[in-house]
């Protein structure tokens, strides 16, 4: 799953869960059944999981182009700079 696919999966999850929560609450309120509300929301969670968790092809529309290993050897990693110890600041009061 690429970066845009992760963003899409997150947005789909939020939208679907919110939509199922609203529908479940409205149905439960109108019918006066807490059990119906929980059942509808549980079905929504399962459907949302089936849509967002698997690595579906539409989540892979923007694949990353990795550097070829032979090219990576030509460009060494940058060295970390060793920083000198900082002197404690004197409080001038």
From TrEMBL:
KW Magnesium (keyword) present: no
Membrane topology reported for the UniProt record: Multi-pass membrane protein
Keywords of this entry: Endoplasmic reticulum, Membrane, Transmembrane, Transmembrane helix
InterPro entries according to UniProt: Spc1/SPCS1 (IPR009542)
GO CC entries: signal peptidase complex
Disordered: annotated span: 69-93
Taxonomic superkingdom: Eukaryota
Record-level GO BP terms: protein targeting to ER; signal peptide processing
Compartments, as annotated in UniProt: Endoplasmic reticulum membrane
Keyword Transmembrane helix: yes
Biased composition regions of type Basic residues, renumbered to the chain: 84-93
Membrane-spanning segments: 12-32, 38-59
PANTHER family linked: MICROSOMAL SIGNAL PEPTIDASE 12 KDA SUBUNIT (PTHR13202), SIGNAL PEPTIDASE COMPLEX SUBUNIT 1 (PTHR13202:SF0)
Functional summary from the UniProt entry: Component of the signal peptidase complex (SPC) which catalyzes the cleavage of N-terminal signal sequences from nascent proteins as they are translocated into the lumen of the endoplasmic reticulum. Dispensable for SPC enzymatic activity.
Family: Belongs to the SPCS1 family.
Protein name: Signal peptidase complex subunit 1
Provenance organism: Carya illinoinensis
């Amino acid at each position: 799953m690429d970066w845009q696919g992760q963003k899409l999966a997150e947005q789909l999850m939020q939208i679907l869960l919110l939509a199922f929560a609203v529908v479940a609450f409205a149905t439960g309120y109108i019918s006066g059944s807490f059990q119906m509300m929980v059942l509808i929301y549980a079905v929504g969670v399962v459907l949302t999981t089936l849509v967002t968790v698997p690595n579906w092809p539409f989540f892979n529309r923007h694949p990353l182009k990795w550097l070829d290993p032979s090219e990576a050897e030509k460009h060494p990693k940058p060295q970390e700079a060793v920083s000198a110890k900082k002197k404690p600041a004197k409080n001038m009061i």
